[in-house]
Amino acid sequence: MTFRAGHNHLFIPGPTNVPEAVRMAMNQPQQDQRGPDFGAFVLGIMADLKPIFGTTRGTIMLFPGSGCGAWEASIVNTLSPGDRVLMARHGHFSTLWARMAEDLGLEVEAVDVAWGAGTPVNEFARRLAADREGRIRAVFVTHNETATGVTSNVAGVRAALDASFHDALLFVDGVSSIGSIPFRMDDWGVDLAVTGSQKGLMSPAGLGVLGVSEKALAASAKAGLRRSFFAFADYAVSAKTGYFPHTPPTAVLHGLRAALNRIAAEGLDQVFARHARLAEGIRAGVAAWGLQPCAEHPSLASNTVTAIRTPQGVDAREVIRIGLERFNTSFGSGLAQLAGKVFRIGHLGDLNEGMCLTALAVAEMSLRAAGARLALGAGVAAAQEIYERTAPVVALAAE
User: Fold this and answer.
1) pLDDT tens series, the chain, 399 aa
2) Quick one: DSSP state of residue 292?
3) Is 33 exposed, middle or buried (0-12, 13-18, 19+ CB in 10 A)?
4) Which domains are seen in the chain, by residue range?
C-alpha cells in the first residue's frame, strides 16, 4: 500500500466531512437503548431537527438506514397499490426514486426533462389542473438533484397544487438540501420530507430522517402498501417516547447530537449564508476556467454541489482518477448518462473558504493533467475575489 501523507480531501456531495467533534462524540461505549436516559436523549435530537426541516407541526421520524430507506418509508406508509403519482426524471436520484415507486406497485406518471433542468413546475401545474378526478394521489419533487447540481422550486409546486385545489400529498427529497439550504416544510405544505444523516447534517451514514405532516400521518391509516420495518405506527410511538422499535445506530445518534450542537452554535441562517457564499466562489471558479455547470440556468444552481461539464475530449473519469491518485483528493463522479461527462464538487456540510480553494486548485491540476487547456490559478483567483469580499470577520475569544 502506498503511503499518503496528510489526509484525503473529500469533495464528494456525500457522505460529507465529519467534524472532529462529531467523531469524538461517537467514540464511547455502547449503551442500553432501553435505558432510562436514552428516550430523552433521542427526543432532544428530534426537537432540534424540527427547525432545520422548517416545521413546528410535523413529526420527525428517525429510521436506521439511509435517505433511500426514508424514501421507501414515505411511500409504503401513505400510498396504496396502483395509486398514480406525478414525478419528474431530471437526474440520477429523481430517476431512482421513480424506479422505486414503480417497484413498489405505484403507477408513475413521469415527466422526463433534460438532466440539468429542474422540476417542471408549469408542466406539473398543467397536469394537476387536468386531473379533475383526483387520480394523482401524490406529487414527488427532488429538491436538490445531487447528480446535476440543480435545486428545484418546491414552493412553485405547492402553488400549483393549491391553484388547482388538488389534494395530492407532496413528497420532497431533501437529502442534499436539508441542513444546508433553506427548507420550509410547513410553509411549502410538504407532507413527506426526506433526508439522511450523512450530508448537511455532517454525520456518518446510518440514519434516514423523515419529516411527516399531520395529513401524511392520517393517510398512513388508510394506505394499502405493505410495510413492517418502516411502519409509521411504530415510529410515531418512537417520536413520542424516543425509544426505537428496532435497534438504533447509537453511535451515529451521538454524532448527530454533536452535529446539531454545531449548527445551533453557528446559527441556522448563518449556515445557509455560508453555503451560499462558498457555492458562489465555486461557480466563479468554474466560470473562470471557461467551463459550464450541468445546471441549465444560474437560477437552478445548487448551493451544495456543482456538477461541471468537462471540455470536449476530456473524460471526467480521468479528472477524478488523477485527483485521487496524484493529489489524494476525491471528487464526485458523473452518474448514469453523465458518466465521463461531468465531475462534481460537493460543497456542503463542514466546509470553509480554504477547503473550497483547495478543491478548485486540485481540480485545475487534475483537469490539465487530463488534457484540458486552462491556466493554473484562474479558478482559485476568481473564488478568492468572492471570498475576500464576502467572508465574515469573526472575532476570536481571548484566552
Assistant:
1) 577 888 899 999 999 999 999 999 999 888 888 998 999 999 999 999 999 999 999 999 999 999 999 999 999 999 999 999 999 999 999 999 999 999 999 999 999 999 999 999 999 999 999 999 999 999 999 999 999 999 999 999 999 999 999 999 999 999 999 999 999 999 999 999 999 999 999 999 999 999 999 999 999 999 999 999 999 999 999 999 999 999 999 999 999 999 999 999 999 999 999 999 999 999 999 999 999 999 999 999 999 999 999 999 999 999 999 999 999 999 999 999 999 999 999 999 999 999 999 999 999 999 999 999 999 999 999 999 999 999 887 766 555
2) E
3) middle
4) 20-264 (3.40.640.10), 268-390 (3.90.1150.10)
Distances, alpha carbon 350 to alpha carbons 4, 15, 78, 81, 346, in Å: 23, 11, 34, 41, 11
- Residue identified by cell 387520480 is 135
DSSP 337: G
Return the amino acid letter for 128.
Answer: L
DSSP string computed for 32-51: -TTSTTHHHHHHHHHHHHHH
What number of H helices and E strands is found in the chain? 13, 14
**Residue length, the chain?**
399
Q: Are 342 and 116 in contact (CB under 8 A)?
A: no
Question: Which of 14-29 are b and which e, b meaning 16 or more Cβ less than 10 Å from the residue's Cβ?
Answer: bbbbbbeebeebbeee
Q: By the 8 A CB rule, do 231 and 78 touch?
A: no
What are the grid coordinates assigned to 262, written together? 454545531
**Which helix (H) or strand (E) is 144 found in, with range?**
strand 144-145
Name residue 143's amino acid.
H
pTM of the predicted protein model = 0.95
- Using an 8 Å Cβ cutoff, are 121 and 149 in contact? no
State the Cα–Cα distance between residues 221 and 394, nearest whole angstrom: 51
Gap between the Cα atoms of 339 and 277, Å rounded: 28
329's enclosing H/E stretch is strand 329-333
User: With b meaning 16 or more CB within 10 Å and e meaning fewer, what string describes 387-398?
Assistant: beeeeeeeeeee
E strands in 148-227: 150-151, 169-173, 192-196, 206-212
Decide the pairing of beta strands 169-173 and 192-196.
parallel
Packing angle, helices 38-53 and 250-266, rounded to 10? 50
- Is 301 strand, coil or helix? strand
Between CA 161 and CA 169, with CA 165 as vertex, the angle to 5 degrees is 50
